Amino acid sequence: MKYIRNLFLLAVAVVAVSCTTGQTTTTVGTSTEVEKKVEQLLGKMTLAEKIGQMNQVSAGGDVSNYAESLRKGQIGSILNEVDPEKINAYQHIAVEESRLGIPLLVGRDVIHGYHTIFPIPLGLAATFDPELVEKGARIAAVEATAQGTRWTFSPMLDIARDPRWGRIAEGSGEDTYLDSRMAVAMVRGYQGSSLDETSMAACVKHFVGYGAAEGGRDYNSTYLSERQLRNIYLPPFEAAIQAGAMTLMTSFNDNDGVPSTANAFILKDILRNEWGFDGLVVTDWDSMGEMIDHGYGLDRKDVAMKAANAGVDMDMMTFGFLSHLEELVRSGEVKESTIDEAVRHILRVKFMLGLFENPYVDVEASQAVQYAPAHLEAACKTVEESVILLQNDGTLPLQADRIRTILVTGPMADAPHDQLGTWAFDGQKSHTVTPLKALQERFPGKVVYVPGLQYSRQERNRFDDVVAAARRADVVLAFLGEEAILSGEAHSLADLNLIGSQSALLAALKATGKPVVATVMAGRPLTIERDLPNCNALLYAFHPGTMGGPALANLLFGDANPSGKTPVTFLRTVGQVPMYYSHNMTGRPYRGEKMLVDIDQEAGQTSLGNTSYYLDYGAYPLFPFGYGLSYTTFAYSDLTMDKDVYPVDGTISVSFMLTNTGAYDGTEVVQLYVRDLVGSLTRPVRELKQFQRISLKAGESRQIRMELPVADLAFFGLDGTKKVEPGEFHLWVAGDSVSGEPISFQVR
Ligand code: BGC
Questions:
Q1: Where exactly are the structural domains of the chain?
Q2: pLDDT value for 639
Q3: Which of 185, 189, 159 is nearest to 171 (CA)?
Q4: 736: CA distance to ligand 1 center in Å?
Q5: What pLDDT does residue 607 have?
Q6: Per-residue pLDDT tens over the stretch 145-199
């Protein structure tokens, strides 16, 4: 099936004015028309012009640097230019001064917002709210396309189960199903429900397995079996492609010895042949050239040959295609038909985006939509849904009328650049509202600010100034965590405790006896166990972006009620890596044995119990996947299924009562988990299969029904095919991945 073409059938655009942007949309035709145009153009192209389309370069600097190459048709795409006037200048040369006038595809890493920055993707995942995430991606597309970016290198769909890996920030965390839902939401948001001038082609990345880098060190090798790939790492990509994602990026890693950029099994067999993807495949930045460093190719010619033959269409920044493909075609090492196919993929995207009809940016209009009030409002709501309440002794929500003095402290209290998080190239700190700014605005005259630490890594032995201020305050709000630079690409860490003297600062504040509320802003789940006793409540905000301040103020003072859930397991200590909820059953699961500290010195070899756990840290994480508190509480009851036995093509209907048993209106993310008790392979202890956000008034009860197609229980088994294996299953509906009592059903 041709997914992009199908999507495009829906996109017979008409000339109209978009109400959100004021931009004009243009007619780009039907799928068949596009295919015709692609073939006609391809027929006119010389080999050199075809190869030119396969070359992507980074802009920056003077437009004239690339003028000659553009005239010769040697560039198919540029990235990293956001000045609309310069983009127009590049396009002008490509369109008016090259022989065939093929417009450029202009790309950028618009990862969690363009100017209006939303929470980092890990924070987006914590919302468990695909609709809201889609809205955010749409806003990013509206802002970015208004300035000329028509291609974003997002969403990143790498499953990450190792918080040392800095890029855990950029994905949806550890779970395949949650990642798949977020993938679809982002693709829809970026590209829009029909293609027009606000459509920004999505690029699903990094294909594939990149998040499983050994040791959490970026760019490292992975060793994923085909079954792990198919059951865990590939489904989010397939879901995104089914949703119409137009492009895909290869990953830097080698999996079991084969670099992704030359891996025909994933790029051809799976992506093209099994999934029918007919969009564009781009390398990661110089990932073709880096195959030389991998020791997988002799020189740029060799790696260009390997990448082209494996199914790569566009070379980001190696210049291997531009320099060597022509001679490789002449020598017969790469077939011209391979080049033709690559160019089809590229031109198809350009035609579908309407670039031929309207390659230019409306410079006058390009500013109007940036940071629009509705965009800021959506960003604020997204932060409210993304923040996770991990601990609360009742201190939160704060009662504003009972507080005269608020001490605001900590290195993240007023760090406008750092709260934006990684990959926020275009978010400006002048537009960022920090917690300090938001609280000062909201409570004029009540806020005392003593930072304590200027930045997270700072070491300090004494905190006399902060402690004195805390003693005079009614409540202490400590904003801790890590700056943007400590997560993201190439920013892995081996120690995940709060860095610098932050834990000491928190302990000093707690010692004053004043109520202390900690808010951690970070790019990953840090190991905060030692900090929990030193605060009355703790909110966890994956870098929240432009509107972090107002949203956090709303949460702290009860104008919003936390509903975020952990999209990734929070560990007690880094030595537990990897620990994730959906691990397979072992032959000796942990059964509550004591830890070494509880055992007398003379204990015999087996007295500690021979099960799967750590003598010092036990078997459990600090907070499981799917966990998060609210100011209210929820009770689940009366879980029933419509049948005991289902056919493989049936649908399971589950119903249960959800009651808001607390004093506040609130929203619960209800999660449906399943376990396949006996399989042709050992199966995960639980797998998330569905979730829903349910809002209830204080005291309200509601009967909730969830429908789960039995087909969703399928997995790739021992024989390599994907199917549902009949047998017995357990099903939970709960507020996290470890709670609830299961009910059983059978599939026959
Ligand atoms: C990253 C990609 C990114 C590309 C372009 C690479 O270093 O791995 O995720 O899209 O750069 O900026």
A1: 14-367, 373-556, 634-747
A2: 98
A3: 159
A4: 33
A5: 73
A6: 999 999 999 999 999 999 999 999 999 999 999 999 999 999 999 999 999 999 9
Ligand 1 pocket residue status of 153, Cβ below 6 Å:
yes
CATH (residue range 634-747): 2.60.40.10
Residue whose Cα lies nearest atom 2 of ligand 1: it is 284
Supply the pLDDT for residue 4.
Answer: 56
Task: Count CB neighbours of 228 within 10 A.
Answer: 17
| CB of 284 sitting under 6 A from ligand 1 | yes
Question: Looking at ligand 1, which atom is closest to the CA of residue 203?
Answer: 10
Residues of the chain with pLDDT under 50: 1, 3, 6, 8-28
Contact predicate 43/74, CB 8 Å: no
Sign of the dihedral defined by the CA atoms of residues 251, 253, 257, 262, in that order: positive
Q: How far is CA 560 from the centre of its chain?
A: 24
Q: What is the pLDDT of residue 21?
A: 33
Residue 535 to residue 164: CA distance in whole angstroms: 25
Q: How is residue 302 written in tokens?
A: 């060799």
**Best mutation site among 79, 109, 206 for ligand 1, i.e. most ligand atoms within 8 A of its Cβ?**
109
pTM flag (> 0.85): yes
Give the model's pLDDT for residue 610.
86
489 pocket-lining for ligand 1 (C-beta < 6 Å): yes
Q: List, for residues 325-377, the tens digit of each pLDDT value.
A: 999 999 999 999 999 999 999 999 999 999 999 999 999 999 999 999 999 99
How far is Cα 164 from Cα 172, in angstroms, rounded to an integer?
15
pLDDT for res 29: 58
Q: What angle in degrees, to the nearest 10, is found between the helix axes of 176-191 and 235-242?
A: 30
Instruction: Please tell me the distance from the alpha carbon of residue 204 to that of residue 210, in angstroms, as a whole number.
Output: 12
In the reported structure, the alpha carbon of residue 285 is separated from the centroid of ligand 1 by a whole-number distance in angstroms of 6
Instruction: Tell me how far apart the alpha carbons of residues 363 and 366 are, in angstroms, rounded to a whole number.
Output: 5
HEC states along 615-644? CCCECCCCECCCCCECCCCEEEEEEEECCC
Q: Ligand 1: which of 487, 489, 491, 492 to mutate, judged by most atoms within 8 Å of the beta carbon? A: 489
* Distance from Cα 318 to the centre of ligand 1, integer Å: 13
Question: What amino acid is encoded at 11 in this protein?
Answer: A
CATH class of 14-367: alpha beta
Atom of ligand 1 nearest to the CA of 206: 9
CA-wise closest residue to 570 among 521, 531, 623: 623
pLDDT at 596: 75
Alpha carbon nearest to ligand 1 atom 8, residue: 284
Return the ligand 1 atom nearest residue 170 CA.
9
Options 158, 284, 414, 736, the catalytic residue = 284
pLDDT of residue 51: 98
205 close to ligand 1 (CB < 6 Angstrom):
yes
Q: Which residue's alpha carbon is nearest to atom 12 within ligand 1? A: 109
Give me the CATH code for the 373-556 domain, please.
3.40.50.1700
The verdict on the CB of residue 285 being under 6 Å from ligand 1 is yes
Q: Mark whether 284 is an active-site residue.
A: yes
Residue nearest to atom 11 of ligand 1 (CA): 285
For residue 153, report the distance from its CA to the centre of ligand 1, in Å: 7
User: For position 604, what pLDDT does the model report?
Assistant: 76
Q: Quote the ligand 1 centre to 734 CA distance (angstroms).
A: 37
Closest C-alpha to ligand 1, atom 5: 285
Strand partners, 659: 635, 701
Q: Which residues are within 8 A (CB) of 78 and not within 5 positions of it... i.e. 6 or more apart? A: 56, 57, 58, 59, 66, 90, 104, 106, 107
- Predicted confidence at residue 681, as pLDDT, reads 95
